[in-house]
Amino acid sequence: MCYNKIKIEFLSKSQNESFARVSIAAFASQLDPTIDEITDVKTAVSEAVTNAIIHGYESEEEMITIEAIINGTELTVIVNDTGKGIDNLELAMEPLYTSRPDLERSGMGFTVMETFMDSLEVKSDKGRGTSIIMKKIFNPLS
């Protein structure tokens, strides 16, 4: 069984979103994904990191941590921030809901993550931050 793990940490600057997306895609490449699978992972990571920057920290510069774990053919990606947390998680997970309409946000971040990954779990504590745990199962290596 294949097992590997990485952890990266970066400032919550919008420029770092592409770094996070590409880093996790590079790590996942050892699972020999299809182009579509790697695009799915990159899109989900992009949404999670963008949520942390815009909603968790409200554009203040703080640290975001991403852990990625490969266990067999499953990739787990955990995006953590220590920002303000989510007031109403159930409402936040509804399609088209946004807590920042002033920024013309679509409110589709969690929906996109759920669509492109096999599972999504969100844990949030008011004033303490949010963890987004996403999993994707890849076809077994030949």
Automatic annotation (TrEMBL):
It catalyses: L-threonyl-[protein] + ATP = O-phospho-L-threonyl-[protein] + ADP + H(+); L-seryl-[protein] + ATP = O-phospho-L-seryl-[protein] + ADP + H(+). It comes from the Bacteria. GO terms for biological process: asexual sporulation; negative regulation of sporulation resulting in formation of a cellular spore; sporulation resulting in formation of a cellular spore. The keyword Kinase applies. It holds the Pfam family HATPase_c_2. InterPro entries: Anti-sigma-factor_SerPK, Anti-sigma_F, HATPase_C_sf, HATPase_dom. Binds to sigma F and blocks its ability to form an RNA polymerase holoenzyme (E-sigma F). Phosphorylates SpoIIAA on a serine residue. This phosphorylation may enable SpoIIAA to act as an anti-anti-sigma factor that counteracts SpoIIAB and thus releases sigma F from inhibition. Belongs to the anti-sigma-factor family. HAMAP family: Anti_sigma_F (MF_00637). This is Anti-sigma F factor.
